[in-house]
Amino acid sequence: MSVPGGGSLMPVSWRCEFHRETAMTVLGSRRKVSAGWMLWIVCLVFVPVLFSCGRGEEPVYVDFSKRVEVGFEEDPNTITYAYVPQYFHRVSYERHNPLIEYLKRETGLPVRQVFPDTFDDYIRMVGEGKIDISFSNPFVYVKVAQRYGARAFARIIEIDGRENFRGQIICRSDNRQIVTLDDCKGKRWVAVDASSAGGYLYALGHFYDHGIRKDDFAEISFVPGPGGQQEKVVLAVYNGLYDIGSVREGTLDLMRDKIDVGQIRVLAYTSWYPGWMYLARKGLDPKVVSAVRDALLRLDCASPEHRPICDAAHFAGVIPALDSDYDSIRELAARVGIDLNSQDAR
Question: Do residues 91 and 135 lie in contact, with contact meaning Cβ atoms separated by under 8 Å?
């Protein structure tokens, strides 16, 4: 948001939107606030400001439009590693930092984790060669493979022992207007991202298989902002901002310490599709790819040494992968009318 003189104000986090109505009810009900309370509010807001400057000091205006990027010297051989931002950056770091430290030890390579803010940022950075190795969902993978020549070299075994995963279509437990999948017609649907597999594509395919098309919804929205996309969908449905949402299976477990997940009902499960994979950008030194792949395949998630790494990353093992393993994702995208080459594929 701009202010006169070229300055700017920091945007309020989208997370705060969930409580905006509550806040506006309290702050906006001026008729219910006594004069005494209003005086206290004014004092609390303005008195610290009055005493924040020393005697005779002039306030300093900070122009946020004038910024200088501060860089650092980095090993030119650094291998950048990214996790498609389906969760908040903190979760991405906690899940993958032990694995990155393992890769450093096993390969001797200077591996550094980077944090794209959005799915689009991730796709762009792969295309620009800014991400060397990454952990990606299948839908994003077929996009970067099609557009930029990236290639899968390993895939995970899910924490439940499966090589595949699926999505969930959710609503509030007390929403009596939605009982069957057909009841989703005319409703507002919030999805993770246009490039999300379990949080969008799989659900879209499930709707198509049951005769429901995109035009049948009153609205299809994708949650904005950096990271935390899966969590934001659950919160949006939980707070009644949308009627239904789509997430990958396992997201509700991640939210158990944040909300009462009993207030969320799983309306439907999608079909199973190939799981997440590791990919390398086009042009990456084959020796680097081989070193990383071999280190990942050596992980023994049943051993005391490697179990904490696997548990943190939420997988039960790593197996080899081929590009053709993801042809079913390409077929699904074509069936629902998504062009993998389109920058606005949704």
Answer: no
Task: Write the CA distances from 276 to 2, 192, 239, 343, integer angstroms.
Answer: 40, 16, 30, 22
Token pair 């939107």 is at which residue?
A: 17
The token pair that represents 276 in the structure block? 């997440």
Q: What backbone phi and psi angles, to 5 degrees, belong to 215?
A: -70, -10
- Whether residue 104 contacts residue 111, with contact meaning beta carbons closer than 8 Å, is answered with yes
Domains 80-163+275-335 and 167-271 alike in fold: yes
According to CATH, the topology of domain 167-271 is: D-Maltodextrin-Binding Protein; domain 2 (3.40.190)
Model's pTM, two decimal places?
Answer: 0.74
Overall CATH class of domain 80-163+275-335: alpha beta
Contact by Cβ (8 Å): 244, 169: yes
Q: Where are the domains of the chain?
A: 1-71, 80-163+275-335, 167-271
Ranges of H-type helices in 198-240: 202-209, 229-238
Cα angle, residue 335 at apex, residues 331 and 339 outer, rounded to 5°: 80
In the structure, what pLDDT confidence band is assigned to residue 238 with cuts at 50, 70 and 90? very high
pLDDT digits (tens, 9 = 90+) for 297-327: 999 999 999 999 999 999 999 999 999 999 9
Tokens found for residue 249? 């299976």
User: What 8-state DSSP symbol labels residue 181?
Assistant: G
pLDDT of the residue at 254:
86
